[in-house]
Amino acid sequence: MSGDILTMEKGRDELLVALQEAQRKYGYLPEDYMAQLAESLDISLSEVYGVATFYSFLATKPQGKYVIRVCKSVPCYLKEAESMIEFMERELGIKPGETTADGRFTLQLVNCIGACDKPPAMLVNDELHGDLTPGKIKQILSSCK
Amino acid sequence: MKEINVTINGKKVTGREGQTILELAGENGIDIPTLCYHPELPPIGSCRVCVVEVEGSRTLVGSCHTPITEGIVIQTHSPKVLEARKMIVELLLTSHCGNCFMCDKANICELRGLAAELEVGIPRLMGKKRFYPVEDVSPYIVRDLSKCILCRRCVRACREIAKKNIFDVGYRGFDSKIVVDCDRALDKEACRDCEVCTSFCPTGALSKKKEPFKEDKRGKPIVVGAGAPEQDT
Ligand code: FES
Ligand code: FES
Q1: Which of A79, B40, B79, B180 has minimal Cβ neighbours within 10 Å of its Cβ?
Q2: In the structure, what pLDDT confidence band is assigned to residue B1 with cuts at 50, 70 and 90?
C-alpha cells in the first residue's frame, strides 16, 4: 500500500485522557489549556480542538451548573422528544447549545444515551431521567437549584 | 515479492502483495474514479467514490485503501457499482454550496469533473447545505469552506508533505469542518510561499490569493469604436 497510516505523533494516545481530566477539573476546556496541551504532546492545536469538539461530553465553552443533555436519537424522537425539546427551550429561554444568563442551565442535544426503554430521555449532569413529560420536566428543572 | 492472483472484470491478472485494488486496476488499464485519494498521500477512504464490488463481500469496498488478496474477484464497473458511485457524488453535491459559474476553479474542479463523467445530471435532492463565510484574512490563501467536501487532502498534505500540520477535522456529522486551531480563520505566516494545500484541494475550497491587478499588469487602456487612437504596432 502506498504510504502509511497517518503519521502517529508521539503524544497522541494521551490526548483524550488529558482532555477528560481537564473537563472534570475546569468544567470545560479553556483555549489556553488546549494550546498548552498541544504543545506538551507535540501535536497541533487543530487536532486537540478536533477531538474536543467531536465528543458531546467535552465542552469548549463554559457550561451551566446543570448540563441538560436531551436525547435526539430515533427511539426518543418517535416518543415526542422533539416537543420535549421545544418545551425546554421555552422554559429555559435558550436554544440547544446555549447556557442561561444566570449560568444555571446548559441545554444540549445528544445521541442515544442508552435509555431507549424509557423514551424520551435526558441526562441532567450525571442523572438520568426517562419517560419525560412537560410536567415532569418542570419538576426536574425546579429541583435544580 | 509475493505474486497474487486476481480476477478483475473477468480477466485473470497477477498483482503484488500489499497492492491496493486501485493500484492493480491502474496497472491493468482500468480507470476507477477517486476523490479523497491522492497518490502522494496516505489513503483514508473517506469519500467512497472509488468503491468496487468484491465477490463474497457484504458491502462495496473502497478500492483506494483495500489491499488485494489471493483469489479475489473484483468488478470495477458493474451496474451496482456505477449506481452507487453516482449516488455518492450526487450526495456530495447536495450539501456542497457553490455555484460553478462563479467558481474560479470550475474548470479544474475534480468534483465537477466527476459529476460530469458519471452523468450525475441536474440536482434532484434538496438537502441541507453547508454554508460558511469565505475566509480571506490570510495574505496567501483564501478558504471557502462552503465548497469543501471534507476529503481531508489538505489535512494530509499539510501534515505529510508541507510538514506544517495546520489543519484538522473539528465537530462531527454534518457539522464536521476542517479547522485551524480553535476554529479560527486561516491566517498563518507558515502559508507563505507554500501552496501545498491549494494544489491538493480537489474543489474551489482552497485557492491561492490572487494579486490585485497592478497598474503595470493592466497595460494600456483599450479604446474601441470611433475616435480610437491609431495603434502603433
Ligand atoms: S434513543 Fe434516546 S436514549 Fe436511546
Ligand atoms: S477515493 Fe477511495 S474512498 Fe475516496
Answers
A1: B79
A2: confident
Interface residues from chain B to A (CB-CB < 8 Å): 18-20, 23, 39-44, 65, 67, 156, 159-160, 165-172, 179-183
C-beta neighbour count of A80 within 10 angstroms: 16
pLDDT digits (tens, 9 = 90+) for A27-74: 999 999 999 999 999 899 999 999 999 998 999 999 999 999 999 999
Atom of ligand 2 nearest to the CA of B43: 2
Q: What interface predicted TM-score (ipTM) does this complex get? A: 0.82
Burial of A89 (0-12, 13-18, 19+ CB in 10 A): middle
Tell me, in angstroms, the distance from the centre of ligand 1 to residue A94's CA: 22
Helices A15-26 & A45-54, crossing angle to 10 degrees? Answer: 70
In order of their start, the domains of chain B are 3-77 (3.10.20.740), 88-208 (3.30.70.20)
Ligand number nearest CA of A111 is 1
Distance, CA of A89 to CA of A76 (rounded, Å): 17
- Alpha-carbon distance B72 to B70, whole Å? 6
What's the CA gap between B168 and A51, in Å, rounded?
9
Nearest ligand to the C-alpha of residue B25? Answer: 2
Instruction: Summarize pLDDT for B176-185 with one digit per residue, the tens.
Output: 999 999 999 9
State the Cα–Cα distance between residues B117 and B11, nearest whole angstrom: 24
In this prediction, residue B123 has a pLDDT band, given cuts at 50, 70 and 90, of confident
pLDDT digits (tens, 9 = 90+) for B135-194: 999 999 999 999 999 999 999 999 999 999 999 999 999 999 999 999 999 999 999 999
Q: DSSP strand E in B73-135: where? A: 73-75
Question: What is the three-class DSSP state of A98?
Answer: coil
Q: What share of chain B is helix, strand, coil (3-state, %, to 5)?
A: 30, 15, 55
**pLDDT (0 to 100) of residue B228:** 60
